[in-house]
Design brief:
Order of helices and strands: HHEHHHHHHHHHHEEEHHHHHEEEEHHHH
CATH topology of one domain: Arc Repressor Mutant, subunit A
Structural class: alpha+beta
Number of helices: 21
Distance between the termini: 97 Å
CATH class of one domain: Mainly Alpha
Strand content: 5-15%
Mean pLDDT: 78
Helix content: 40-55%
Length: about 475
C-alpha cells in the first residue's frame, strides 16, 4: 500500500469566539470600579469615541450610553453663562501653611494651626506601617551597624499582628550574631511601642504589656502566663484552684485583661488597603413598589466621534490606509458602545428577575430569603447560566436593607416537611438572631439551637448548626458564656 499526500475539503461547524463577543464578556465580568477604569482607557485609546456631557445633545443618529435604552438626544438651549477664569476661582497657594515650623525655644510649633488645616502626612502616598514606626523608634536607639542589621531583620519578620514569626536561631543564622546579641536586640524591640510588640504568642504579648504597667507579679500576669487556656474557656473554677485565689479576684483580673490589654498589638498599624464597594444597581421603594434603577453616576455618555465621521464623508482625497484606520476605529467604538448597553441591560434584567423571586426578602429581611439557583433566573430572562454567573460576580446592589452582592440572593434549599423549603442563608440569619437574644449567662449550645429550629419545622443536624455558626464567625458556647 503506497503512502501519498492528498488534499481534502471538509466542511465543519464550530463556535468561534469573535473579538466583539470577547469584549462583551470582558465588560460583563467587570465590577463597577473596573468598568470606570476600562471606559477611561478606551476613551484615551480610541479616537472614534467621544464623551458627551449629560446635558448636551447626542444627535439623532449617534449612539450614547445613558440608560438601558438607547435614547435619542433632544435639543437644548444654548448656554450663555459667562465663562469664569481659573485665576478667579483658585486662590494663590501659600505653601508655608502646609509645612511645620519649629521653634526649639518655645514648643513644637510657632503657632497653633487651625483645626481643619491639612497635615503634611495627608500628602504621603503610602501610609506608614508597623515596620516604619519601629524603624523610626530604632533610629533613636544607640545601636552599632551589626546590631542595627539584626534589629531590622527582627522587625521585618513581624506579622501584621505584631508577633515574631522566626526563632532566635533563625535570627542568629541570618545575621551572623551570637545568642546573647539576638536576645538583647529582641528585648530592645520589645521595649518599643506599641507595648507587647515582637512577642512570640498572645501569652507573651499580654505579659509584656503587664510588665510595662508594673504588674509583673500580679494575678493577671500569672493568668496570662500559666492559665490562658482556662481563661479562654472561662473555666474560672480551675483558675481559682490553680492560683488559690477567690473567684471575685479572678473575675476582676480577667476583666482587666480583656478590657485594658490588646492581644494583637500590631493590628492598629496595619496598612491593609480598604476595598470600597460601588453598587451597580439600586433597588428603591417608590409608592409602595420596589423599582430597579441602574447606577450610572460615573458612566460617561459615549458617542461616535463626529469629527472622524465628517472627515470620512468629506475625505475624497484621503488615502486608503487612512480611510481603513478611521473605519476600524469607528467600528470598534460602535461595538464598545453596544457592549456597554448590553452589559447594562443584562444587569437590569437579572436584578429585576431576582427582585421578582425574592420579593419577600426586600419586604421582611433575610429570614424570608427563598431558595434560588442560577437556572431559575436564566430560564426567567431566557439567558444562559454562565451569563447569569458572570453578572452576579463582583456586582453589588444597594437596597433599603443594605448593600449585598448579587450572589447573596442565590442559596441552596433546606427542605421542610409539609411546608415550603427555606434558603440556607435564611436559616443562618435565624441562628444569628437566636444567639443575639440568648441569655449571656446561659447561652445556647449547638444542640439546643438545633432543637429550637426543629420546633419551627426546620430539621438540621447539630453539626450543620455548628457549620453555619462558624460561617457567621460566632464563638462556640463555652466562649460566649459570661460569669455570674
Amino acid at each position: 500500500m503506497a503512502l501519498e499526500l492528498r488534499q481534502q475539503l471538509k466542511l465543519t461547524q464550530k463556535l468561534v469566539m469573535t473579538p466583539q463577543l470577547r469584549l462583551a464578556i470582558k465588560l460583563l465580568q467587570m465590577n463597577r470600579l473596573e468598568l470606570g477604569d476600562a471606559l477611561q482607557a478606551e476613551i484615551e485609546k480610541n479616537p472614534g469615541l467621544e464623551e458627551v456631557e449629560r446635558n448636551q445633545d447626542v444627535g439623532e443618529n449617534q449612539q450614547s450610553l445613558s440608560s438601558t435604552v438607547e435614547q435619542k438626544g433632544e435639543q437644548i438651549e444654548q448656554d450663555h453663562t459667562a465663562q469664569v477664569k481659573a485665576e478667579d476661582t483658585i486662590p494663590e497657594t501659600n505653601w508655608e501653611d502646609y509645612a511645620n515650623t519649629f521653634d526649639s525655644n518655645v514648643s513644637f510649633s510657632q503657632e497653633t494651626p487651625p483645626a481643619d488645616a491639612p497635615s503634611q502626612f495627608d500628602f504621603i502616598s503610602e501610609k506608614p506601617g508597623l515596620l516604619a514606626y519601629l524603624q523610626w523608634q530604632l533610629a533613636h536607639s544607640e545601636l552599632d551597624s551589626d546590631e542595627w542589621d539584626t534589629a531590622l531583620f527582627i522587625a521585618g519578620n513581624l506579622n501584621h499582628y505584631g508577633f515574631l514569626e522566626c526563632s532566635l536561631e533563625e535570627v542568629m543564622e541570618a545575621t551572623k550574631c551570637d545568642h546573647d546579641s539576638a536576645e538583647y536586640i529582641l528585648e530592645v524591640i520589645q521595649d518599643l511601642d506599641p507595648p507587647g510588640i515582637a512577642a512570640r504568642d498572645v501569652s507573651e504579648s499580654l505579659s509584656l504589656q503587664l510588665e510595662r504597667m508594673g504588674m509583673k507579679n500580679s494575678l493577671a500576669c500569672e493568668i496570662v502566663e500559666k492559665h490562658l487556656d482556662f481563661m479562654q474557656t472561662r473555666n474560672y473554677k480551675a483558675i481559682c484552684q490553680a492560683t488559690g485565689r477567690k473567684r471575685a479576684e479572678v473575675v476582676k483580673a480577667i476583666e482587666f485583661i480583656t478590657t485594658e490589654l490588646t492581644p494583637y498589638p500590631g493590628l492598629p498599624y496595619s496598612t491593609d488597603a480598604t476595598n470600597y464597594i460601588v453598587p451597580d444597581v439600586y433597588v428603591r421603594k417608590i409608592d409602595g413598589e420596589f423599582v430597579v434603577h441602574l447606577n450610572e453616576e460615573d458612566i460617561p455618555n459615549l458617542k461616535l466621534s463626529s469629527g472622524l465621521q465628517e472627515l470620512l464623508q468629506s475625505g475624497e482625497d484621503m488615502d486608503k490606509s487612512s480611510k481603513k484606520y478611521i473605519k476600524e476605529k469607528l467600528k470598534d467604538a460602535g461595538w464598545f458602545i453596544k457592549s456597554l448597553h448590553q452589559r447594562q441591560r443584562t444587569i437590569f434584567k437579572v436584578m429585576d428577575s431576582i427582585l421578582k423571586f425574592q420579593s419577600d426578602f426586600f419586604e421582611h429581611g433575610a429570614t424570608k430569603l427563598k431558595p434560588l439557583i442560577l437556572r431559575d433566573v436564566a430560564e426567567d430572562i431566557e439567558m444562559h447560566e454562565s451569563t447569569i454567573s458572570r453578572v452576579t460576580s463582583n456586582k453589588y446592589v444597594h437596597t433599603p436593607l443594605g448593600i449585598y452582592e448579587l450572589k447573596y440572593f442565590f442559596s441552596t434549599a433546606i427542605p421542610r416537611q409539609g411546608a415550603e423549603a427555606l434558603a440556607a442563608e435564611s436559616i443562618r440569619e435565624r441562628i444569628r438572631k437566636m444567639i443575639q437574644e440568648e441569655d449571656p449567662y446561659k447561652p445556647l449550645s449547638d444542640n439546643s439551637i438545633s432543637l429550637k429550629l426543629k420546633e419551627n419545622n426546620i430539621e438540621i443536624a447539630r453539626r450543620t448548626v455548628a457549620k453555619y455558626r462558624e460561617q457567621l464567625k460566632i464563638l462556640p458556647v463555652k466562649h460566649r458564656r459570661k460569669p455570674r
